[in-house]
Amino acid sequence: MQATIFHNPRCGTSRRVLERLTQAGLEVWIVEYLRTPPDRATLAEIARAGGIGVRGLLRAKETLVAEPGLDAPDISDDALLDAMVAHPVLINRPVVVTERGTRLCRPAELVEDLLPPAA
After folding, report:
1. Whole-angstrom distance, CA of residue 5 vs CA of residue 103
2. Most CB atoms closer than 10 Å: which of 47, 56, 77, 86?
3. Strand order in the sheet with 2-7
4. pTM passes above 0.85
5. Residue 36 and residue 68 in contact, taking contact as beta carbons nearer than 8 Å
6. Element holding 44 (H helix, E strand)
7. For residues 37 and 92, is the Cβ–Cβ distance under 8 A?
8. What percent of the chain has pLDDT over 70?
9. pLDDT tens profile 90-99
10. Alpha-carbon distances of 56 from 22, 26, 49, 115, rounded to whole Å
11. Matching CATH topology for 1-33+93-119 and 38-92?
12. Residue 112 carries which DSSP code?
């Protein structure tokens, strides 16, 4: 089974999730999203497939969220996607995609639902 992780190697949660994916024997494609940011369509699909919506994909504690008012309840998904494309640090992580689904794995234990069943 294969997995894609949108990963920040400086994030402890992201490192734990990546370690769990490799321990489970998955072939992991690592996307360091700060170096290679996903495009707008990919972000929208992650938000949809993960069931979290665009606002759920936003890393709300980043200072870049409050300064331009991205935390306002009436800001559109389009504006949030534009901000995440322009500033990938605004993307919450780690996001994992496998054939079992897409999930923002925060806390790290959420990755367990995406792993193959134990034999």
Report:
1. 10
2. 47
3. 27-32, 2-7, 95-98, 101-104
4. yes
5. no
6. helix 40-49
7. no
8. 99
9. 999 999 999 9
10. 26, 26, 12, 22
11. yes
12. G
Tell me the average pLDDT across 26-32.
97
Domain 1-33+93-119 sits in which CATH superfamily?
A: Glutaredoxin (3.40.30.10)
Q: Where are the domains of the chain?
A: 1-33+93-119, 38-92
Question: What would the DSSP string read from start to end of 61-102?
Answer: TSHHHHTTTTT-TT--HHHHHHHHHH-GGGB-S-EEEETTEE
Residue 117: what residue type? P
Q: For residue 119, what pLDDT is reported?
A: 46
Q: How much is the mean pLDDT over the chain? A: 94
Q: Which residues carry out catalysis?
A: 11
φ, ψ at 54 (rounded to 5°): -65, -45
Q: Are 95 and 108 in contact (CB under 8 A)?
A: no
Place of tokens 């980043």: 62
